[in-house]
Amino acid sequence: MALLTDFGSATWNNTAGKWGTPGNLTGAVYSYGGNKLTDAGMATALMQMVDTTAMNTVLSGTVAAGDYGGGGLSFDSCVNTTTYTGVQFTLGGTTGGCDVYFQVQTFVEQGIANKGGCDPSAAGASCYSFPQMKLASPTGMVTVHFSDLAGGMPTGASAIAAQIVGLQWQFQSAAPATAGGPQTDCTGINLTIDDVQFVSN
């Protein structure tokens, strides 16, 4: 295994806002959201913070019905992880009724504004389509192998592993409880993420 961060003092620099260890892989945390409004008129908004006491990172906020939001770990450089088979992490807290997807940001799909290789303004460009897997139970220790990921670009475990530029957890409004029924807002999201590492088994 190769630990990226457990958000303790050895792998999280609170002053610099950086995870990892100098001389090895480092990066930052971030959050993002869509552009829809909740039933209460509030925009989708997620915030990511690092809890230095509990030693984890927390994604909290609200996702509007039919919308999405998330956060994760950006890498300071593109990483070839073909010696590994996947990523392991520990989740806790609540998802607010949203489905949660684990996504691997790849260089070919990351926008050039974020140091990726995809130009959203180019004709026919379709950026930010990352390989992903829906998490069946977003609590406890989770292992996602690169071969489990579907959709997005590139395809295939080796190709994905060769160009990772970040990891993210995305919340999406769940399907209606009844066919043809309305989707509902996800409120009270408070997901903790810890012990993020590459695995080779």
How would you describe the overall organization of this protein?
The protein has one domain (2-199): Jelly Rolls. The radius of gyration is 17 Å and the shape is globular. With 201 residues, the protein is mainly beta. It contains 1 helix and 13 strands. The chain has one helix spanning 157-161; strands at residues 2-5, 12-13, 18-20, 26-33, 45-51, 56-63, 68-79, 86-94, 99-106, 132-134, 140-145, 164-172, 186-199.
What does the secondary structure layout of this molecule look like, with pairings?
Blueprint: E1 2-5, E2 12-13, E3 18-20, E4 26-33, E5 45-51, E6 56-63, E7 68-79, E8 86-94, E9 99-106, E10 132-134, E11 140-145, H1 157-161, E12 164-172, E13 186-199
Antiparallel strand pairs: 1-13, 2-3, 3-4, 4-7, 5-6, 6-13, 7-12, 8-11, 8-13, 9-10, 9-12
Q: What does this entry show, briefly?
A:
With 201 residues, the protein is an all-beta fold. It contains one helix and 13 strands. It has a single domain, classed as Jelly Rolls, CATH 2.60.120.
N to C succession of SSEs? EEEEEEEEEEEHEE
According to CATH, the fold-level topology is: Jelly Rolls
How do the strands line up in the largest sheet?
2-3-4-7-12-9-10
Strand content: over 45%
Characterize the largest beta sheet: strand count, sense, and whether it forms a barrel. 7 strands, antiparallel
Radius of gyration: 17 Å
Number of helices: 1
Low-confidence stretches: none
Name given to the CATH homologous superfamily: Galactose-binding lectin
- Termini Cα gap: 9 Å
CATH C-level label: Mainly Beta
Domain unit count: 1
Shape: globular
Count of DSSP E strands?
13
Fraction of helical residues: under 10%
**CATH architecture annotation:** Sandwich
Structural class per helix/strand content?
A: mainly beta
Q: What number is the mean pLDDT?
A: 94
